[in-house]
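Exercise 7 asks you to align residues with tokens for two separate proteins.
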Amino acid sequence: MVGVGEMFLRRFLSTFFGYLLLIHIAEYIPTASAEGHCVWYGVCKNATEKTLNCYYDGPAKPLDETARPIIDKYCPDLAAGGLTCCDREQLQNLNDNIIKAENILSRCPSCLDNFYKHICAMTCSPTQSDFLMPKLEQFNSTHKRVVELSYHLSATYMNNTYSSCANVQMPSTNQLAIDLMCGDYGSSFCTPQHWFDYMGDKDTPAVPFQINYISGDEPVDGFTPYNPPTKPCNVGLPGQPGCSCLDCLESCPAPPPAPPAPRPFSIHGADGYAVIMAIVFLIFTTLFLSGVYCCNQQENVVDWAGGARRGGPETSPLHSHRSSVASENNQEMATNPTSVGWSADQPDGADDATFFEKLGAETETKLEDFFQWWGCLMASKPWIVLFLGLCVIVALGHGIRYMQVTTNPVELWAAPNSRSRLEKKYFDSHFEPFYRTEMLIISSKGLPDIEYKSPNGNVMSFGPVFNSTFLLKVLDLQNRIMALGNTSRIEDICFAPMSSPFSGPVTADNCAVQSVWGWWENDPDQVTDYLDDNQYLEKILSCSKNPYSCLSVWGGPVLPGVALGGFLSPAEPLSKTSRFHRATALILTFLVNNHHDKEKLKPALEWEEEYIKFMKNYTENEMPSYMDIAYSSERSIEDELDRESKSDVSTILVSYFIMFAYITISLGRFTTCSRLLIDSKITLGLGGVLIVLASVVCSMGIFGFCGVAATLIIVEVIPFLVLAVGVDNIFILVQTSQREPRRPDETVAQHIGRTLGQVGPSMFLTSVSESVCFFLGALSDMPAVRAFALYAGAALLVDFLLQVTCFVALLALDTRRQNDNRFDVLCCAAGTKADGAAAGEGALFNLFRYVYVPFLMKREVRASVMIIFFAWLCSSVAVAPHIDIGLDQELSMPHDSFQLKYFKHLNQYLNIGPPVYFVVMDGLDYSDRDVQNMVCGTRYCRTDSIAMQLYSAYRTPNLTYIAQPPNSWLDDFFDWAASSACCKYFPSNSSFCPNDYSTSPPCLKCAIPLEGPEQRPSSTDFQHYVPFFLQDNPGFSCAKGGHAAYSHAVNYVNNRTHTRIGATYYQGYHTVLKTSADYYSALRAARSVAANLSETLNRNLREAGKNSTVNVFPYSVFYVFYEQYLTMWPDTLKSMGISVLSIFIVTFILMGFDLFSALVVVITITMIVVNLGGLMYWWGISLNAVSLVNLVMAVGIAVEFCSHLVHSFSVSGGGGRVARASHALATMGSSVLSGITLTKFGGIIVLGTANSQIFQVFYFRMYLGIVLFGAAHGLIFLPVMLSYIGSPVNKQKLARQLLRGKEAVAETSLTRVSAPTHRHYNFDTLLA
């Protein structure tokens, strides 16, 4: 855990500063001598009392030569004089104790040298009496000793020394040295006077007597303040460089100017997209209205007699005949075809048709002939077809047993070869994962603030959560949580950074818990004993200023930014000077070890399950009325998602049931009540629904055999999609069969074959278009999108095959039942022959033909439709770039989830962001001095080293989203190796020994030799002692042990001779991240930093002649989920582009190479998708993987709204575009409305009642938009656009239709004597 080493620094600093007093002497005795003299010499000690310096007021004595190495090292100026006021024992005490300060400040020798000077002068200066005034007490009959000291010290020296040391880092804790050396003030509130006062405070543990530092530059009471020369931190000692940028701001180059913040696209202050779209709309509207009202638009009508086309006004009557061969009632044309210039004796008169027209006509004819033959074949042997179909369904469905369902979010939304997945795999294979967190956010309800009067008289207002009763209740809850577990207890799973094989088994007190009670050492007496005048609140003030002065029972600090919440104003950054005492929430965080091995993780999962059960019961039954608690565990999100998927099953089933019921009921066409059970299509509709479900089952089975993992989104979405497509085809097939009565002497099989011949090409067109669209959509890199596309494409293809086989067979059986007047469902019972009656065309069909179509095709209405829809399109294009990207985690939870409350509280009270690791991949030789300088951050390291660049990035958190400088294990290793008190080994086998090991026999010091100006271990010693460093906990005598902070950060392979360092990481923290934009922006910024690190490192390696290439990448637990948002727009446009392009190609080919029809379909589908984008903006639907799947699905469903109508238009016979569009809309419009539109609408409404927010937002809202927008474009805009720019009449198709019409007339005239009279419709007349 970052920062745990500081627990010992507080203690050894106390010892060190206590030593400073040991080396002082006596009460001031005035002397006549003008020259200074000693105030102490030697040590006065006994076995029971503290060791103090003996008073001595004589002149300085010659230096004891046996102690010269010590004074030469620390006080070379005094050693040069040869006379001192300290003996060998005092110098030995100096050597033993000053090394602790050296551990902290040695990163900056200039600072340390300045610091040494006042210590040396106080200990050994031959003129001590000039600036020291001692206070004495009798030690024995012959000696007095110093018990208090006044030290007159120059303010200039104090300020300069403080400035040179103010920014010295403690890498393992991401803290400053001053945080440890300034007591309760910490670095944020520390001043030079506070710093020196803390060093002389007798209340500091191990300080034997008071040292009063008297600041000033002028003599006072005969004392001249000591004022030695100092160096700024950026100026090095002779022959050495100054301190590094990490430890000395003066050494840092000026940061480059911040790039300007990205500005939204605007034109003269207005939204740029809106302005451009407004201009486009005005231009289009002007040109369009000019063309409609100012130009005499001519409508092309076929004139075969003249061999060319002649014009006529679009509103003129077309003639008295139908433009197609037979009416909807299948009656032959009542007028002679020659009335349009066609000779009945010349069926091949279309010799001037183009190649593509001939090819298209041939394609259309072949498709019609094939489907007519196929339908006749399927309908002639229905039971055999159904049996074979059932066999195929069972065989393919058998693959479901091999199907695997993926629920891991990582595998759902990140491609296996994506950068984030590869980096996560690398991190997981080299390091242990970040620990699991169990968190409670506890706020107050109805409690007032607490007034506290500090010792200096200031009245302060504390937040209500510091109420003593509230605090004690929180401690009780904390203790009960720590006691949870039967088979798995907290001590078995917790993160205990200070534990080691030498410290015995882990106990609950060793567990790292971030709780404000750690400041009181979890002891309620430390609060209850200080309730008078709320004195216990003083601990809040002191510990929040410097948490390293209030270490918890587990040995580390409780950080106020982690344990407290609600003290920051909106947009206020967290800092050491934040008003922590104004907190409105207490945050308890229990850290649990995480593992890649699922077996090792089971105890943690069991404990978390019990913890959640306990918290649910506590919040429901035991929580006090003045308390509000939000809680979560590491497993909570996954548990809630699983619960959510189960809770929404009923909603999904109800939705599907409503759609199924509508289908089974609405397929029938009823004439009289007596024929209700005969004309109903309940059995047929149910069969159609079962076919839809069977196609989904077959799709799952196919990919189960293939080993393609499924997802829950497939189970939830694909039945909806296939039902949309399947129902549309079912309605078109059945209603066409109903509107096309069986001809005389035509069998049921022939009639169904002829019906399928008419609609089969359209069904084939839509199904193939959608299947190809989805199969190409599988090119997406996102696993969830790819799996959905594959399963959907296969399901649609199987659904089409089952419809043209099994459903055609069912339709044949149902037609025979109806012809025999047998009841639906109860097919054994039959009505009487007298019950038979001719079925009408249906109210909806007639509504379209007589009311809607004539109204829509009026010139003014058509013009208005074009303008309105284009305005709609322009507005959607204008707002689409502003669609939010991301998926807020709150939306993934059900309404009644405790996680929702936790997310809300987290956003409100969270003060620190997630950890970020900058991973240096394997390939560096860290024992090489040049490589070390490319990585480290201390003196002699390159200014563009990894540590230096990371520190520079930390200085601009608004750009890099890095809130704390990543710690550097290499820098701490150098300091650890240089300290004689750190490295130890067992003499018996030379193995590692902890620095605080006290069991006999004692361990020996390593005494690692340091080489070169950098004073670092040799390459051999580096490789040998790195494992020692990584096993050594920070202790009383050694603050630089690396086990707590770096045991997981360094990958190494150790053998008997040396250690090879592999991958390592540098850990920091992101700034507070609350929205999806924050998260993916932090990812983007971290990758930018890492790219600079990689480029610089590899350039330096090449310049140094190193034959290696090493990359640096950032890693955090959330990257794998948010990477998709970095490329969400390109991915969306790519998926949409592939889908639309595939539909264009398939439509172009299957509609007989009809370019106009393919373009019309693509334009309409594009408009539907773009307008869905506008809906997403206005209805708050963000762009993410879920909505991308829905957009891909929308493209497929949009085909159903377009292709049937466009195909009907393209095969319509001669006449104007308006008449052909009218015919297509009247023929197909009612089927589209009653089929896909009304069916889906009923099912979608139910989704609005789902418990899941993700269902309400991404399924209900988007599905409703897909259906309504698709229907609006397909039934309003598309016919109007066809009336303007629809494909011209294919002369070859018309010639073949007329030829077939003549054959049909010849066939049916022989038996038509008694045929009833049927109406013939002229759409141009209707329009008038």
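Second protein for Exercise 7:
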Amino acid sequence: MFLVGHSLLTDTAWHFKKKEGKKKNSGWTGEGTVRANTLLNDHPNPHYANNKIKTTKYTLLSFLPKNLFEQFHRFANVYFVFIALLNFVPVVNAFQPELALAPVVFILSVTAIKDLWEDYRRHRSDTEINHMDCLVYSSMERRYVEKYWKEVQVGDFIRLRCNEILPADVLLLSSSDPDRLCHIETATLDGETNLKQRQVVRSFLDLDCEFDPFKYHSVIECEKPNNDLNRFRGYIVHRSGRRDVLCKENLLLRGCTIRNTEEAVGIVIYAGHETKAMLNNNGPRYKRSKLERQMNVDVFWCVIILLVICSFAAVGHGLWMFQYGDKRPVFDVLSPQGTNLSPIMSAIYLFLTLIIVFQVLIPISLFVSIEIVKICQVYLIHQDMDLYDEETDSHLQCRALNITEDLGQMQYIFSDKTGTLTENKMVFRRCTVAGVEYSHDANARRLAMYQEMDSEEEECMSHGGTLPRRESVTSHQSARVVLRSQSTKSHRRTGSRAEAKRASILSKHTAFSSPMEKDITPDPQLLYKVNECSSQMDFMRFHSQPMSQLSSDLSDIIDFFIALTICNTVVVSSPNQPRHKVRMRFELKSPVKTIEDFIKRFTPSRLTSGSNSSSSSSLITNRSSNKGCSSLLSSPSAESTLTKLHEEQSSHLEPTFSPVPPCYDGKASWNLEEGELRYEAESPDEAALVYAARAYKCSLVGRLPDQVTVELPHLGKLSFELLHTLGFDSTRKRMSVVVKHPLTDQITVYTKGADSVIMDLLKPLDTGKRQKKIICRTQNYLNLYAADGLRTLCIAKKILSKEEYACWLQCHLEAETAIQGREELLFQSALRLETNLQLLGATGVEDRLQDGVPETVAALRRAGLQIWVLTGDKQETAVNIAYACKLLDPEEEMLTLNADSQEACALLLEESLHYIQAKFLCSSADQAAKAFHTNFVPCEINSSSSLSSHNTSPFLVHRLGLVIDGRTLAYALDKTLEDKFLEVARSCRSVLCCRSTPLQKSMVVKLVRNKLKVMTLAIGDGANDVSMIQVADVGVGISGQEGMQAVMASDFALPRFRYLQKLLLVHGHWCYSRLANMILYFFYKNAMFVALLFWYQFYCGFSGSAMIDQWYLIFFNLMFSAFPQLVTGTLDKDVSAETLQRLPQLYVNGQNSEEYKPYMFWMNMIDAFYQSLVCFFIPYFAYADSDVDLFTWGTPITTLALFTILLHLGIETKTWTWMNWLSIIFSITLFFTVALCYNASCPTCFSPSNPYWTMQRQLQEPLFYLLCLITPVTALLPRYALILSHPWCRSSTNKYSHTVETINIISFKRLIPRCAFQI
């Protein structure tokens, strides 16, 4: 044991390892060293970050330049500022310089005000956080004083109290908890509400008095700040030079809440922006949508058109000036020097002038309008009550505001299985122990009762009904298909909504504790054996008989349930206060600290002469050094245990039972007056197995760092000393605990994990016939469980001698204190411990499908979406779930790729390609048989099945399903094979990747997205899905049972998978359709208005003059015509929500970008030029040979252009609401109000042109009203007639929208051309 008293207690400051000849002034590079702030004068760490946070971007001085700099990152803003500044040049100006600045100043101001408001909100939040109080040790006053969070610095000692939020990342040095634990809640970091244990640094476990910071004399070396919440590496170096390892279980993170601990003391390791919470606070993610990328191309074309027409006009002006020769016209403008300009210089100046005049061709208001419309669309999506989950009281969350339209263009969906398609609420179904299977039929009937309740509730609440399921099975289908159909039913959600609601009320803070999950009905046969085993053990204990007299089968049964009970990290909570754990330290004997004490306790002399009083007193002074961390490969007191093992190396005692167990209180049952205990588990798997063991009266009743207390039938409460916890991780796929058995003198390893891993770690089959028989039978049952869709875990154990344990402990201690390659050494240390295991049995746990998953998957597939499921489950389980959720169809063939090497994988992919080509591209079945000679058995393909959509690529998708395991997937993702794998996978309707790692998930998504150039969506619920979610074009997180990591990394968050159907098929379709049409309308509107000015250049010598007043030119697009298109872009619905969900085939409209094709831009440009011709020349001929002035002719043209543009919008609007009417009336009213006021305000402002009283005179002329009637109708008549006579001019959705509303699904399908899926 490390003897650390107050003499070891240290000053610390951050200083860094410096390279030779190179001095670093500040910042983190490599490993750092911390010194405590116990100096009386200066703080030892002045050059490192304090705890003050600042998430604002601006200050009063930096706001204007910094905000403008950020806005000028958008090229459009730079362009418009350049045009406005160009207007200040006298020789090229076209408008009043101040007036030309108005639009760009307005746009920049609106954005700046929005940014300022957001930054002010961040400033208020920062101020509130920085001024929170905490207790910090003052070296001057030798006590803890209150300070603001912002005053805390690295090296400060902080006293933490219950329910207090941590102000910084703190290394735990002391706790008021008798077990030196500190419980924290990390909901603000990862969304998980279950309590987590943190352990005092090992060196300070045995302090028997209050921690005194002034006597601290240790040095801490740790890694530089990083954003990994699940990792912390470091060492604490004592004055003697000895090191203790620091791990994440010693670190309390900023933002966490202290629970169940009255008081704790720690030293600040990371402060302020260097804390892990702040390093993970990256703010909202920015993505650029596909539609926006297409729009940028058309903006570029607008620039080209602008340059072309300006160049054309400039050349025309130069030629016009050239024809005068030396005779300059009287209206010619002289140069600033008073000389005549040459035709070339006049053309150059005019080119710049026309750039200013025609600037509205580039839609300055388009970018702001798009942001406004997207915010409104997000608001409407949030208000959709169909996307609200009453059970969890959660709404859809939109975390990325700028890619809503991408939801309507998805082509591939990559989904996790557990917690995404399923509920991640594990229900224990059956198990096998010692090769005997226990079906738990009564438990199955209990679950069936819940299923009937749910079915009755759905039947009562259903309004529309669903498509009937096919019940018949054709004659050529095998029995396996029948089994799939039956198992499909078993994966339906078996708990009613009312039951779920009641469960949530009962469980409150405790996760995974609904009645369905915990009220397990035991199997009578197994329950009888458990009682028989316990009775015999009780008898042998009373008569001090050795363990060997218990039969092997019964021994395996009791060990099986002991493993289920203790091989986990479950925290036991009291029922009335579920956030407070139950302390079960038994004080009849002093806690076991070493193997020496452990052996002496069970000798006859020890059993007869134990002193309770002395033991009780020793509990206070001699605290156990075996304090365990729940992380991977934590070995509390490894050094002390090793020392005692060496001392007792020659001691050998026969394992015997004691007449009275050292931790037995004489009671046969564990009862609390308040009610039953509650289990706070970090995963639903752990909770399900603990509740299953409790059903057999093998209950977990207490957990301490060095001790786990269980209650067994007839034996009462037993305390297992916990030596090590080898935590679960995705690499090892297993968890182990090393304990000392309270009834025998044996060190036992209990292991649970995936069957694919545990089976490889068992003893060789030649060790015994019984074990071989158990392994074979268990493997058969595992296959049956997997075929029934159950999640399987294997349970095993291993008994270590003291010599074996001492050898392993020595190696483990070296690995734990290693500096280089520590993770690999710890992994190898675990592997040495977890080999030659004895198989005890296996469990089958059901993870039920969420409501509506099969219907959602079927609808998404009919919409033309390719769905790939990427899961870590074993192949058989994943396949069965895939059939249950209709991802795989029993009528379609399934290709299974399982390879043991890269060469075998390449051969399988090659043969699969040959088979696909021969089967679906050749007419002869014989050719298919010759081309494919492996185990793939072709089945008949229903040729009448129509495939609903096609994509841009000509590659066909066939009625095939592909299943590939993780090992084969690793080979297939190799650079040499990824193209072949992708060619095979894209030929299949569904792809199922089993046993895939988080890295493989992201690699698959990236491969499909980059190689096929398609839109991808990834959806998941856990931390292992984060990389996949971030790689996809759109990431969706499920706010489920595995915390909020996936949600925080996502663009959208959903409470349930079934809401994805409406999000994509309805809101995605609407968002894409609205924005696509709005963008095209913007281009049309601006081009039409600019063309009016262009036509006038032919009548003014290409001089750059305009017949429209400059006020109208500036504000026409910014004010008069802006509001109606915003309303239409927000509220327009080309098809109703009911139709879009009833006919998912309409989603193909967005997949193929039907609403925004490149030719549509040019068609709108042509239409805009035609309408401008009509609006220009009809007034021109109407006022020909009259004496009206320029503005008397130009003002009607402006009015006609406004009416034509608004009527054009009306033709394109599919859904009319009162807001559409109001916006149009408001725009017209605003135009005439501004015109009347402006024309009545200034008689002599712009001589010689005088706009005074122009609109007033126009309103008195009948000709004006006649023009307003004839011109818009003439301009829009061709478009309207073409739409009516040629439906192909509309998008595919518009084409069928009116028909779909009135005919049924079957007749509608006949209208849609049959075609194969194309990817």
